[in-house]
Amino acid sequence: MNYDDSFSDNTTRALTQIRRLIDDGNLPSDGRLPTERELSETYGFGRRTVRRALEVLEAEGLLWRRQGKGTFAGQPPRPAAQMAAEIADEVDALGVMEARMGIEPQLAALCARRASGEDVDRLRLLADRTYAAADSDSSELWDGAIHRLIARIAGNPLLLAAFDLLDTVRMGEDWQHKRHMARSEETRAIYHAQHEKIIAAIDARDSDRARAAMMEHLQVLTDNMRRTLEDAL
């Protein structure tokens, strides 16, 4: 199911209006959006419609929320950034993958226990966006959004902090270059099928299957990256 198709026309219109608000840049310097009530009054939509539109935009990585502070355009501040900068030179791409295999399968298992139906719809939307991406940068952006959403749904603050550190390291230019080298039309199709397998296990609320599917996905990523690095020598 296409996630956007699950919404009413009002929600689709609300998405369009709020995207335009973000794209136009007519926001305060901190990127804070108007409140749900203010958006509702400005655009003439119900609060529930506005809330669902904001949830989609958050899943897409266009905004983030802080409890008691509001909703903001862009990406949230990354408290792991300083630590990531300190260790980035000490960790190679395969070391990052080793750490991911130690953390992300458990996040997928917890996600399978705690995901709602709407969470699954968002994951499917992000998987479709990843596969449909026209270039490597866009594909990497949406791919990262899938894994971050799984980590957030898992709901374990310590594991989420560890994931955030890894995610910050893998956003570095050197890592991105290695990922681009390892990406091809063939691997893109493989990764999409693996994302769908992970999401199907989450949808079935099968923690063991979600854990195994994530491990399989990360192992394939690791093997492809290792071959690419060896070929580049």
TrEMBL record:
Segment forming the signal sequence: none
Superkingdom, taxonomy of origin: Bacteria
Keyword Aminoacyl-tRNA synthetase part of the UniProt annotation: no
Pfam families, per the entry: FCD (PF07729), GntR (PF00392)
Gene3D superfamilies, A to Z: GntR ligand-binding domain-like, Winged helix-like DNA-binding domain superfamily/Winged helix DNA-binding domain
GO MF annotations in UniProt: DNA binding; DNA-binding transcription factor activity
Keyword Hydrolase: no
The entry's keywords: DNA-binding, Transcription, Transcription regulation
Domain HTH gntR-type: 8-76
Protein name according to UniProt: GntR family transcriptional regulator
Organism in which the protein naturally occurs: Yoonia sediminilitoris
